[in-house]
Amino acid sequence: MFGLIPKEEKFFLLFKQMTGNIIEGAKLLKEMLDNFDNPSESQRKIKDVEHKGDSITHEIIQKLNKTFVTPLDREDIYALASKLDDIIDLIDASAARVIMYNVESIPPEAKSLGFIILQSCYAVDKAVAMLGQKSNEQIFAACVEINALENEADRVSREAISRLFDEEKDPIQLIKWKEIYETLERATDKCEDAANILESVVVKNA
């Protein structure tokens, strides 16, 4: 009978593993964009991190199917796992596009987006670490930070794309970089999606 009653921290520990893995991927992406010494190797490492993320997501869903009593609503556990998985997927997609399009150098706006993605991932990690705690103020504060970072990424991406249309004479380069900027920005959108789930969970369980 006692085996059916879960220890709440099992799900929370798995979520923390997910956010730690996401930070690792975001650090690798930032390093790839900042240094650009061996982008193919960086992309391979990011792909490994993405695979690890898939494994943790799968473990959460398996545990969800086997657990009788869950610390949060089942749909919230599933939604948060999915949104966290989306973040690392977009980090991987950003790195993949840099390689796929054979870019030769990284403009400052892309480096700025890499920095914002990493800061957003740190904020998501901070919020997830507070799940199950008595005070929810830090979760709300982290979610506000994530929202501000997403707005900043949106601004940087818009300005970068606007500059592309003003200055880039090669239409192929324009198409390539427009897609890379949009993919990088979408990674911060996914962080905001995770923040929205976390806020909803806090309000429900207050």
From TrEMBL:
The protein, known as: DUF47 family protein
Regions that span the bilayer: none
Gene3D superfamilies, per the entry: Phosphate transport system protein phou homolog 2, domain 2
Family statement: Belongs to the UPF0111 family.
